[in-house]
UniProtKB/TrEMBL annotation:
<dbReference type="GO" id="GO:0047938">
    <property type="term" value="F:glucose-6-phosphate 1-epimerase activity"/>
</dbReference>
<dbReference type="Pfam" id="PF01263">
    <property type="entry name" value="Aldose_epim"/>
</dbReference>
<dbReference type="InterPro" id="IPR011013">
    <property type="entry name" value="Gal_mutarotase_sf_dom"/>
</dbReference>
<dbReference type="InterPro" id="IPR025532">
    <property type="entry name" value="G6P_1-epimerase"/>
</dbReference>
<dbReference type="GO" id="GO:0005737">
    <property type="term" value="C:cytoplasm"/>
</dbReference>
<dbReference type="InterPro" id="IPR008183">
    <property type="entry name" value="Aldose_1/G6P_1-epimerase"/>
</dbReference>
<keyword id="KW-0413">Isomerase</keyword>
<dbReference type="GO" id="GO:0030246">
    <property type="term" value="F:carbohydrate binding"/>
</dbReference>
<comment type="similarity">
    <text>Belongs to the glucose-6-phosphate 1-epimerase family.</text>
</comment>
<dbReference type="GO" id="GO:0005975">
    <property type="term" value="P:carbohydrate metabolic process"/>
</dbReference>
<dbReference type="InterPro" id="IPR014718">
    <property type="entry name" value="GH-type_carb-bd"/>
</dbReference>
<protein>
    <recommendedName>
        <fullName>glucose-6-phosphate 1-epimerase</fullName>
        <ecNumber>5.1.3.15</ecNumber>
    </recommendedName>
</protein>
Length: 310
């Protein structure tokens, strides 16, 4: 791209475009050719490419992004509820809303914004949202693309209400994989989990890394801050580093009868694995004026990387 790191200006490394429904998207670029695309529909990262132009996130071929339905793929934001554990619609309303760009974002710590392309999006409840979830909040999402191509999402939820509220949260990250049979997840061994396929019953994971042979839908509880998703065929490992996000969701619909398959093309379940940094078991409680922060960084490394390096 011809930009040296010394003169790279994160402000000029962003481009505003419109999707086929006229909804704004922001494209972040780094000087080496990596990019990330964020839609104001849902505050959803819908594409993340490395410096060779390879897509790192899965998106369903059936995704048309037509509001209000969220796109099946990328990184939808689940807030203020995860799944169906609450009175709201599945995964809450944030992923269906039109967010706004904060043109004058507050400064964040230097290690979060220094020499990165980034954009800050904001979501505040509409009158309609307040009818279903009567809590005034501000949700700020910062999406950063690093010089090294790493993708970082930082969310801040502030209670701007007069009374406390609590919420769940997840970065529902659809990672692109060569084939689900080639995938192994390390870092969740011996963790307790709720199995959504067994009435949310609690089990303990055995000592082995996770592999896939059928539908999988689990919430790992209080897990380590680093989880590796290895793709043997592509010789690629995604390393997820998280802060303020104790739980990890691992999901692949597999079963053709699964309702989620309606939004996926034939056999597309093979090309994706959802691994979310999340807060589910113990929802976050905020008193008036308090703020919560959750951070997820995804790094892609060659598969020679071993889990001992985590
Ligand atoms: O189809 P949605 O609403 O985007 O949800 C996708 C999946 O998300 C998972 O996290 C849930 O555990 C599944 O049950 C659900 O099907």
């Amino acid at each position: 791209m011809g930009h040296s790191a010394a003169v790279w200006d994160s402000k000029i490394a962003t481009e505003n475009v419109k999707d086929w429904n006229g909804i704004d998207q922001i494209v972040l670029r780094n000087p080496h050719g990596a990019s990330a695309r964020v839609s104001l529909h849902g505050g959803q990262v819908i594409s993340w490419r490395n410096d060779r132009g390879e897509e790192l996130l899965f998106t369903s071929s059936k995704a048309n992004g037509k509001a209000p339905k969220p796109m099946q793929g990328g990184i939808p934001i689940c807030f203020p509820q995860f799944g169906s554990c609450g009175s709201l619609e599945q995964h809450g309303f944030a992923r269906k809303k039109i967010w706004i760009v904060d043109q004058d974002p507050p400064s964040l710590p230097a290690n979060d914004s220094n020499r990165k392309s980034f954009i800050d999006l904001l979501l505040k409840p509409s009158e309609e949202d307040l009818k279903f979830w009567p809590h005034s909040f501000e949700l700020r999402l910062r999406v950063c693309l690093g010089m090294d191509g790493n993708l970082t999402l930082i969310s801040r939820v502030r209670n701007i209400d007069g009374k406390p509220f609590s919420f769940s949260f997840a970065y529902h990250s659809y990672l692109s994989v060569s084939d689900i049979s080639e995938v192994r997840i390390e870092g969740l061994e011996t963790m307790d989990y709720f199995d959504n396929l067994c009435h949310k019953e609690r089990f303990t994971e055995q000592g082995d890394a996770i592999t896939f042979e059928s539908e999988f839908d689990r919430v790992y509880l209080s897990s380590p801050n680093c989880v590796a998703v290895l793709d043997h065929e592509r010789k690629r490992t995604y390393v997820l580093r998280k802060e303020g996000l104790p739980d990890v969701v691992v999901w692949n619909p597999w079963d053709k009868k699964s309702k989620a398959m309606a939004d996926l093309g034939d056999d597309e379940y093979r090309q994706m694995i959802c691994v979310d940094g999340a807060v589910i078991e113990k929802p976050i409680s905020l008193k008036p004026g308090e703020e919560w922060k959750g951070r997820l960084e995804i790094v892609v490394v060659p598969s020679s990387f071993c889990s001992e390096d985590l």
